Amino acid sequence: MTGRIVIDIFMTLDGVAQAPGAPDEDPSGGFPYGGWQAPFADRASGEQIIEGITRIDALLLGRRTYDIFAAYWPRHAGQASVIADVLNGVPKYVASRGTPTLDWAESTLLGPDLASEIAALRARYAETHVIGSIDFAHSLLDAGLFDELNLWVYPLVLGRGKKVFPEGAVPATLRLVEPPFGSGTGAVRLRYAPAGPVATGVMGPEDREV
């Protein structure tokens, strides 16, 4: 079996992915807009997000996101929450340079060889999802160690905060794998797969008229 590594990220039009869920989620750098995603929640996008959650066989998280999830989701176990049931039940793998205490059930610290660890996860699980974990996601994106980038883009500009593709990100081309999904609040889901290095060329007159 060759499984897939799927990166799930909520971001603004200017690429900010910091603290979408709550004001205290990640206030680092004095970020003042924590919880920016909440005003755009609706039934349609919620159903799509839950559908994606139900496909998860394992979680792969950065240390900060792991700590947030571990403090939140176990408290919601047994409350008829699909998300809580899935996230509490699947194996969790954590990327950290330290030696954290991992108290959430079925949690394992990744080893230092990221490429080997990703290969092992692909061999073991059909779908391993990275949710948020923006700093860790940078490492996966730069190294090409992912199979799908699932971006939820929201119609607001924040002007500051951690970005999905910061200055200095490794250049790459992505391929859209299905038509975009749009919610009534203006959020758009874009599912991309890696498509190789960046190619350049010259636009002809006929291209400019399209």
Automatic annotation (TrEMBL):
Segments forming domain Bacterial bifunctional deaminase-reductase C-terminal: 5-177
InterPro entries registered for this protein in UniProt: DHFR-like_dom_sf, RibDG_C
Highest taxon, organism lineage: Bacteria
Signal peptide residue numbers: none
GO molecular function, one term: 5-amino-6-(5-phosphoribosylamino)uracil reductase activity
SUPFAM superfamilies for this protein: Dihydrofolate reductase-like
Protein name (Swiss-Prot/TrEMBL): Dihydrofolate reductase
Organism: Microbacterium saccharophilum
